[in-house]
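Following up on my earlier message about adenosine-5'-diphosphate. Here are the inputs again, as you asked, copied directly from the submission form:
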Amino acid sequence: MSLLEYIYDTYFKPGQEHIDYVLQEQAKAGYINLLLPDLASRVPWVGLPDPDPEFIIPEEDTPISVYTGRTEHLKMPVFWMPLSLMNPHLLGVGTTGAGKSTLVKTMTIRMAREGVPNILFIDFIGEYARFVEYFMKGKVVRLGTEGNNINLLDLSSTHPRLRVEQTLSALSSELNLDNAPRQRNILRRAISKAYKDAGIPISEKSISRDFWAKYNKLSPTMKDVYNIIRDMMKEEDSGKFMVGSKGGRESSEGMLDKLEKYNHPPYDSITSKSTVNLEKILTNPGVLSIDLSGFPTEDMKIMTAIMLLHLQEQFMRTFPSNTGEIRTFIVIDEAWKLLKLKENNPLSVMAREARKYGLALLILSQRLKDSDNDLFSLFGTYVILNLTEAEDINYLKDSLNLTSREVTKIRNAKRGDAIISLKVSQQGQVRFWITVDPILSTDLIEIVFPEVPDLDSIIKEVSKIY
Ligand SMILES: Nc1ncnc2c1ncn2[C@@H]1O[C@H](COP(=O)(O)OP(=O)(O)O)[C@@H](O)[C@H]1O
Ligand SMILES: [Mg+2]
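Thanks, got it. Here's what our run produced:
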């Protein structure tokens, strides 16, 4: 079968659900005209050839296929088929303005159309709120602004011992606990005590969510933790509670210094009782954006994002998927800081086990420098847009074995031009260039007023007729 026959066959077979949509797309790009002469044999193969159609063109029973763009040479349509790859996670990288957010919006709009039921955006800068509300008909939960709190210690029906460890890892990099093992221990003790003091039976072995759900309302906050550390210091001073050496006291003081600011506005939105039911929004999000742009500091956004991902990871375990379909896409743009987390990174855990829970990650970052190699290797799809920083390019060059010709092209790539690398088997990588076929924000603007043509153009139109 020739390439053209293959495309015609796969594509224009009636009864395919996406046929109208595909035809529209084809017509738009003049693809049908392009198909008529058999160009395949005449394209000079310089650099990366177009991929074999089997990797980019869906069949009738392909569960999810997301139209993304066109190949470099034959302008073949490229459908992303996450379930046909080694894993369904996608990592997109590109410098500012390279087209990352546009790629995300383009893909998620089409995913929703493909029937992906849940798409959860973790939005650091608030750029998805309008998009989700107006164009995806989804919901936005705004956190960090006045009256919109998220309690970092919220139990959310999870075993409190696990929440202690999750909280430590959420706070670890922002509070510099990695290099302060004593402070880490003090914090661990204090958080455990805060749960106990609140009447939550932390030593109970029960792992049922229903059991822990009873205690959700009692969840203490980091303010309680602050007070506990302060009291522990007082007791030590009065000689009642001789656990600490001199170094221990300094560590406690250091820990208090780091936590103090979160007792007061505007920093107390992570140390006050949650104003949203996290369990409810995370277990069945629909199309939802959690907007973290209201937090006053970058640190608070990261801590919250890590906490949310930990909870999501737990919820995911509670509801395994036996159908193998993707139920939830988690989308994180500007995720550089999360890619760097080496210890206890919720993204790594999710990426490893996501398939059996019907979860897939769509992660975008403008930088790769210092990324955790382990996490990096867990993606089944890499989209590499324009990159300029040598460190980022070298990182990719080493991990994906890019040739110097490819590197040059990445350095000079235009907006929306990208290399795609698909892990199609344990060893096999299919790599090719595409031009993203974007849904631009200008395509999304609703026309409120009918357009009135100006006089000049009316005269022109009329003069054409007569
Ligand atoms: N594939 C594309 N084709 C044409 N214009 C694009 C494309 N991708 C992005 N743009 C435009 O480039 C600008 C920056 O894109 P954006 O997606 O915000 O980049 P990033 O998120 O990487 O900083 C936007 O104005 C967008 O409209
Ligand atoms: Mg962006």
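One observation from looking it over: The first strand starts at residue 66 and ends at 71. Hope that helps, and feel free to reply on this thread.
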